[in-house]
Automatic annotation (TrEMBL):
It catalyses: O-phospho-L-seryl-[protein] + H2O = L-seryl-[protein] + phosphate; O-phospho-L-threonyl-[protein] + H2O = L-threonyl-[protein] + phosphate. The active site is at D116 (4-aspartylphosphate intermediate), D118 (proton donor). It is an enzyme of class 3 (hydrolase). The keyword Hydrolase applies. It comes from Anguilla anguilla. Its EC number is 3.1.3.16. The keyword Hydrolase applies. SUPFAM superfamilies: HAD-like. Residues 106-264 form the FCP1 homology domain. This is protein-serine/threonine phosphatase. PROSITE patterns: FCP1. InterPro entries: Dullard_phosphatase, FCP1_dom, HAD-like_sf, HAD_sf, RNA_Pol_CTD_Phosphatase, TIM50.
Length: 305
C-alpha cells in the first residue's frame, strides 16, 4: 500500500474517534440535563400542593457580623429556620389572665365564694315598690330611670357571716351602672373583695356564664352561690344552688344556709362535699336539710339537739 493511502486511513479513523467521543459526551450531557429538568419539574409540582417539599436545606445568605443585629427568629419547635423566606408574624400581648387580684393577706387560707346579686341577694324592678330598701337612679340611653330594690330577708346577717368565713366576690351578669351602686348600698361592711359584672362573663348559647377558671383561684376551693344554673354551666360541681327570690318576706333561705357554709369552710376540698349533694333534684336550704345526715360535718342548726 502506498504511503499516502496509509496517512489518509489514519486521518479518517482519528476523526471518527473524535466524532464518536464528542457524540458520546453530548449524549451524556443531554441525559443529565433531561434528568435534572425532570427532577426540577417534579419538585415544582409537589411544591405547588405541599409546603413541606420546599427546600429548607438552603443556607441563608451570609451577613456582616454586627453585635447590634437581632438573632434569627426561632420556630415553634425551637429550631432556627434556614429558609430566608420565613415570615415572622408578631403575636400581640395576651390580656390579663385572671379576673381577680392577688388574695388579700387577711383572706389567706380561706375559700373563695362567688355570690350572685339579682334574685339571690336582692330583687329589683323598674316599677315602683312601696317598701323598697333602695332606689337607684340608672341612666339608659340618655334617660334616667329609677330602679326599686328589695333586699332578701336575712341578707345582712348572711353577708356578714360569709365575710368572716370566706373570701367573698360579687359576680353578676347585670351591668355595672346598675349593680355597682346597688352593691355600695347593700355591702356596708366591705364583704366583697371584688365585684365582677357582665363584661367579665362569657356569652355562651344565649347566656352570660360565669367562668370560674378565669378567677385566678384554685377551683377545688371555689364555691358559687347562684339561683340560675345557666350561670355556672361550666362548673356545676362548684355550685350551691339557691331558690330564686322576688318578694316573699317570710323567706329564710339565706339564714338556713349559714350552718352549711360554716361546715364547708372547714373542709379541705369543696368537691368532696358538693358531690354528695348533686343530683338530688332540690336546691337551696331544703337540699342541705335533707343532706345533713350524710355530710362529713354536722352543722349545728341542721341536726337535732
Amino acid at each position: 500500500m502506498c504511503w499516502w493511502k496509509v496517512q489518509r486511513l489514519l486521518r479518517y479513523y482519528g476523526n471518527a474517534r473524535q466524532i464518536a467521543a464528542a457524540a458520546s459526551c453530548q449524549t451524556v450531557a443531554v441525559s443529565q440535563s433531561n434528568s435534572s429538568l425532570k427532577k426540577q419539574r417534579n419538585r415544582s409540582f409537589f411544591s405547588a400542593f405541599f409546603c413541606c417539599f420546599r427546600d429548607y436545606n438552603v443556607e441563608p445568605p451570609s451577613t456582616n457580623n454586627n453585635t447590634s443585629s437581632l438573632p434569627p427568629p426561632v420556630e415553634e419547635n425551637g429550631t432556627v429556620p434556614k429558609c430566608d423566606q420565613v415570615q415572622v408574624i408578631p403575636i400581640p400581648s395576651p390580656p390579663a389572665k385572671y379576673l381577680l387580684p392577688e388574695m388579700h393577706i387577711s383572706d389567706y387560707g380561706k375559700k373563695c365564694v362567688v355570690i350572685d346579686l339579682d334574685e339571690t341577694l336582692v330583687h329589683s324592678s323598674f316599677k315602683p315598690i312601696s317598701n323598697a330598701d333602695f332606689i337607684v337612679p340608672v341612666e339608659i340611653d340618655g334617660t334616667v330611670h329609677q330602679v326599686y330594690v328589695l333586699k332578701r330577708p336575712h341578707v345582712d346577717e348572711f353577708l356578714q357571716k360569709m365575710g368572716e368565713l370566706f373570701e367573698c366576690v360579687l359576680f353578676t351578669a347585670s351591668l355595672a351602672k346598675y349593680a355597682d351602686p346597688v352593691a355600695d348600698l347593700l355591702d356596708q361592711w366591705g364583704v366583697f373583695r371584688a365585684r365582677l359584672f357582665r363584661e367579665s362573663c362569657v356569652f355562651h348559647r344565649g347566656n352570660y356564664v360565669k367562668d370560674l377558671s378565669r378567677l385566678g383561684r384554685e377551683l377545688s376551693n371555689v364555691i358559687i352561690v347562684d339561683n340560675s344554673p345557666a350561670s355556672y354551666i361550666f362548673h356545676p360541681e362548684n355550685a350551691v344552688p339557691v331558690q330564686s327570690w322576688f318578694d316573699d318576706m317570710t323567706d329564710t333561705e339565706l339564714l338556713d344556709l349559714l350552718p352549711f357554709f360554716e361546715g364547708l369552710s372547714r373542709e379541705e376540698d369543696v368537691y368532696s362535699v358538693l358531690q354528695n349533694l348533686r343530683g338530688r333534684g332540690r336546691c337551696g336550704a331544703a337540699l342541705w336539710r335533707t343532706a345533713a345526715p350524710s355530710l362529713p360535718f354536722s352543722p349545728p342548726l341542721l341536726t337535732a339537739p
